[in-house]
Design a protein that fits this description.
Layout lengths: L3 E12 L2 E6 L11 E6 L14 E5 L9 E6 L6 H7 L6 E9 L8 E8 L3 H13 L4 E9 L19 E6 L2 H11 L6 E5 L2 H13 L7 E3 L3 H9 L2
Parallel strand pairs: 7-8, 7-10, 8-9, 10-11
Antiparallel strand pairs: 1-2, 1-6, 2-5, 3-4, 3-6
InterPro entries: FNR_nucleotide-bd, Riboflavin_synthase-like_b-brl
Organism: Aquibacillus koreensis
Protein name: Dihydropteridine reductase
């Protein structure tokens, strides 16, 4: 396993609770849209075993052509040791990246694509949308639906409806409205549904979509194929 140590170039305050850490791109570090990585803080590998409290599984919210690795995360006032340390990092500080992989690349199968997310989960979809804007081949259209009770919606300059690009975006701040919209989207029995959020959020969405006749193979989850199979089997 190769560990890439890299520096923080910029810290963007997206909302009062959400920050994006822009990291330098190590020379041979590669990724694609929908990728996640393991972000580790200094000292995580100082002992005989990795200190897992200093490691988190994070989505990359940028595309390679942006020449920076974006890590977008919510940091609340009361937070974990990891988030507390991360909050206090500054430009020039180093972090480590390893085990980078994409479970949710943009499928180009001449179908409608639906992006369902909760809160900062939208960061996973940002590069998919940008990739689609650059090259819309074999995607009929994309619809994004995000729920965020904080009402501090993310990336609103990107996630705004653009009819000329066949892209629509919706933000809601409560579950009732959110799941009503999911049911409406599920009227498309041939669509591809991406879901990003907590396991509880995934389960609730899958149950609603399955009740509407959407098949498991139409679901894209940010989980490794083996874990996805196990996860779906447990529902």
């Amino acid at each position: 396993m190769h560990i890439y140590w890299t520096k923080i170039n910029k810290i963007i305050e997206e909302t009062p609770e959400v920050k994006t850490y822009m990291l330098e791109c190590p020379e041979d570090f590669t990724w694609e849209e929908g990728s996640h990585t393991h972000l580790a803080l200094e000292g995580f590998n100082a002992g005989d075993k990795p200190n897992r409290s200093l490691i988190r599984h994070m989505s990359i919210s940028t595309l390679p052509q942006e020449n920076s690795i974006g890590i977008t995360t919510r940091i609340k006032e009361q937070c974990s040791e990891f988030k507390t340390i991360l909050r206090n990092l500054e430009i020039g500080n180093e972090v480590a990246l390893f085990k980078t992989h994409s479970n949710v690349p943009l499928k180009r199968e001449d179908k409608n694509v639906y992006l369902l997310s909760s809160g900062v989960g939208l960061a996973t979809f940002r590069p998919l949308v940008l990739d689609y804007f650059e090259r819309a081949d074999n995607v009929k259209q994309i619809h994004s639906l995000n729920i965020d009770s904080s009402r501090d919606f993310l990336f609103t300059t990107i996630f705004e409806t653009a009819s000329d690009k066949k892209f629509t975006s919706q933000f809601v701040d409560n579950r009732k409205d959110y799941y009503e919209e999911v049911k409406k989207l599920a009227a498309d029995k041939d669509g591809i549904f991406y879901i990003v959020g907590s396991d509880e959020f995934l389960v609730q969405n899958i149950e609603v979509l399955r009740e509407q006749g959407i098949k498991f193979e139409q679901l894209m989850l940010d989980k490794h194929e083996k874990f996805k199979t196990d996860f779906l089997a447990s529902i």
